[in-house]
Hints:
The protein is mainly alpha-helical. It is built from six helices and no strands.
Amino acid sequence: MMKLAVLAAAAGSAAAFAPASNGRAATSLTAEKSKAIPFLPNPENCEGYVGNLGFDPLSISEYFPVDYLREAELKHGRMCQLAWLGYVAVDLGLRVPGYPEAMSGATSATVHDAAVEFGAMGNILVWIAIAEMTSWIGVSQMLQGSGREPGDFGFAKQYLEGKSEAQIEKIKLQEINHCRAAMLAFSGVVTQSVLFEKGFPYF
């Protein structure tokens, strides 16, 4: 009888330190899975956004407003589309009127140092700062519930007039896909040009 009591006490003590079941394991096993990463749960906060494939391996959408994240994605994507075009155009020999002689022989990969020496980088910084401060007004209003859509600065709105919701969604999907492709393309172009030290097509 004494042995039975000791075993019961030991079992009770062990149970006291066992992790309590809160149902999370069952929830994570039965939750909808991401299309992009099937072994991770689907990021629910990304639902309803054009181009959403459930790619959020770091769960960033749980810590930041998704409107803000989409704004950043569109901004970086648009800049990379312009950057890729500019990077390649310079390496193909395109120069703007008044291009300084000190930078005439520079490539896209080497022009930074020449631009710093010439003093152009300060001007670029000023214009970028003005653009960022101006754009933040719209972003701030969006985060406060103004109804503004991410990336909407009112440009070329007439292009969407008369189009159905399905057509508008298709255009938005095309833009976000081009943005994502451009971010990869620009990083690839820069990497190739630096590694191989060759002009376009960089191999």
